[in-house]
């Protein structure tokens, strides 16, 4: 943006300038910054109001995921008592949302490559609201499981679509920080979920309190849905479909400034994409030799990471309840159940604070240190934290609780600094635009196999082998995750998305 030296106002450069008469890629325009009259670039990218709107709306999916999944860690005991569920049935309740995410990521998320990012971005929230309302009024165990699965479908779709809405519309050099900034709302949602569970139980100490917990998300979800109707489609995706006029209108709306900069957008077609590639499926993606390394890097560590994230995250209240002497086996009355869940929710909320601290560090260092190094470091730190917590299980009551708290807090911090944040970021970057939705969706779907497995088996294994052995076993999987990450590493820090082919 040039500066008028006579009155200090700004105005757009002349349209006859050769710089503004050449066809450029969408990434070029998004990464470009306005300049002063003498050619000096403004030191930072100037985000437009539309870019900020997209970013804020993209935080919602992660927030709701953290809120719903971690809230289930408190509410599942209440649901079990109200409907008289067995340990296996409780496993279905805790695993239903994660199984829905698994299916939603690979099916609905992959559809964004065919129908567009924006359409799926809106559809997922409509699905989320419908099943949230059904869950709130559910009167049977089957309806509860189906509703939680439906919520997972919507949240699974959000994994690739929200990432792409940010990464395909934001500057490359700070793309990592912006994606992780949105992802950090998963930690915020987790903290809000456990905190809200504590407040609801305090205000409504009854078995039916879980309904109030879930219903609290309905109004915010409606507002987010309305907002998503007022954003443009990804210009990068439109270019892969050969829809040039729409792409130019979309990027013009995305980068609308006052005064306008640049004055005109002239996008160039992507010659590397053939007409056949516009119909990429997951099967074609797997056949692509270059994509196989990307699939391994994005999916396998994410699978291993989810074993710890959801195992520890969902059942932290249950483990703390056992340490505090109020495990389900010791419960004698409904009032004791409520008291137990309130006390466990307090401890879980304290531990979950480290999720936010960890993601803050990830945002600060991701574009400086790099995705791969942070993911490896985080996996090693997760293993250390879980080993500390598992060792605490075998000690006396005097030191047992402090070690478990220290271990789980270290795990949460290192998890969000490393694998929990970086696996999400990497999956949305390492695939080309034409099948970024399918690739990121496939990685998220495979990862949720780990989440579903651990969510279903954790309460059963917790009773059979104890928390100590269980946590130590998950620690080993974290070390394997570090090795896989380093072996198949692809560093994307600072690179434009259109460099990936």
TrEMBL record:
PROSITE patterns listed in its UniProt record: MFS, SUGAR_TRANSPORT_1
Annotated ranges, domain Major facilitator superfamily (MFS) profile: 54-493
InterPro entries assigned: MFS_dom, MFS_sugar_transport-like, MFS_trans_sf, Sugar_transporter_CS
A Pfam entry, by short name: Sugar_tr
Stretches of the chain forming a coiled coil according to its record: none
Chain segments carrying region Disordered: 1-21
Taxonomic lineage of the native organism: Bacteria, Pseudomonadati, Pseudomonadota, Gammaproteobacteria, Cellvibrionales
Compartments, record wording: Membrane
UniProt protein name: MFS transporter
Keywords for the protein's UniProt record, in alphabetical order: Membrane, Transmembrane, Transmembrane helix, Transport
Bilayer-crossing regions: 54-79, 85-108, 120-138, 178-204, 210-231, 307-327, 347-367, 374-392, 398-417, 438-461, 467-488
Topology within the bilayer: Multi-pass membrane protein
Similarity comment: Belongs to the major facilitator superfamily. Sugar transporter (TC 2.A.1.1) family.
């Amino acid at each position: 943006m040039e500066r008028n030296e006579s009155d200090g106002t700004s105005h757009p450069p002349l349209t006859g300038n050769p710089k503004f008469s050449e066809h450029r890629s969408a990434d070029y325009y998004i990464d470009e910054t306005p300049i002063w009259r003498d050619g000096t670039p403004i030191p930072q990218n100037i985000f437009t109001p539309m870019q900020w709107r997209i970013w804020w709306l993209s935080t919602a999916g992660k927030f709701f995921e953290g809120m719903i999944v971690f809230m289930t860690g408190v509410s599942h005991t209440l649901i079990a008592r109200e409907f008289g569920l067995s340990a296996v049935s409780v496993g279905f309740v805790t695993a239903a949302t994660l199984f829905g995410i698994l299916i939603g990521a690979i099916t609905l998320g992959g559809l964004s490559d065919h129908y567009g990012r924006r359409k799926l971005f809106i559809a997922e929230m409509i699905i989320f609201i419908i099943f949230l309302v059904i869950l709130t009024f559910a009167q049977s165990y089957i309806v509860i499981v189906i509703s939680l699965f439906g919520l997972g479908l919507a949240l699974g779709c959000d994994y690739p679509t929200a990432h792409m809405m940010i990464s395909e519309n934001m500057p490359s050099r700070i793309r990592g920080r912006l994606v992780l900034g949105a992802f950090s709302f998963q930690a915020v949602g987790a903290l809000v979920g456990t905190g809200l569970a504590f407040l609801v139980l305090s205000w409504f100490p009854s078995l039916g309190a879980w309904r109030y917990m879930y219903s609290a998300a309905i109004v915010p979800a409606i507002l987010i849905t309305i907002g998503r109707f007022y954003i443009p489609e990804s210009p990068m995706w439109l270019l892969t479909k050969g829809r040039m006029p729409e792409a130019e209108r979309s990027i013009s709306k995305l980068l609308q400034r006052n005064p306008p900069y640049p004055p005109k957008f002239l996008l160039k077609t992507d010659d590397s994409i053939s007409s056949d590639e516009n119909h990429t499926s997951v099967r074609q993606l797997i056949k692509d030799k270059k994509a196989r390394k990307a699939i391994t890097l994005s999916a396998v560590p994410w699978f291993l990471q989810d074993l710890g994230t959801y195992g520890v995250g969902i059942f932290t209240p249950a483990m703390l309840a056992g340490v505090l002497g109020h495990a389900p086996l010791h419960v004698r009355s409904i009032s004791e159940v409520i008291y137990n869940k309130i006390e466990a929710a307090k401890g879980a909320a304290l531990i979950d604070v480290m999720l936010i601290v960890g993601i803050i560090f990830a945002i600060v260092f991701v574009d400086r240190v790099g995705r791969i190094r942070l993911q490896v470091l985080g996996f090693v730190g997760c293993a250390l934290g879980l080993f500390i917590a598992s060792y605490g299980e075998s000690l006396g009551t005097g030191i047992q609780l402090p070690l478990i708290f220290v271990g789980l807090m270290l795990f949460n911090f290192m998890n969000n600094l490393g694998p929990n944040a970086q696996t999400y970021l990497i999956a949305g970057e390492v695939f080309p635009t034409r099948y970024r939705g399918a690739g990121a969706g496939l990685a998220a779907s495979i990862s949720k196999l780990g989440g579903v497995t651990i969510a279903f088996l954790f309460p059963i294994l917790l009773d059979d082998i104890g928390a100590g052995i269980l946590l130590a076993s998950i620690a080993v999987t974290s070390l394997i995750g570090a090795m896989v990450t380093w072996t198949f590493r692809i560093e994307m820090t600072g690179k434009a998305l259109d460099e990936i082919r």
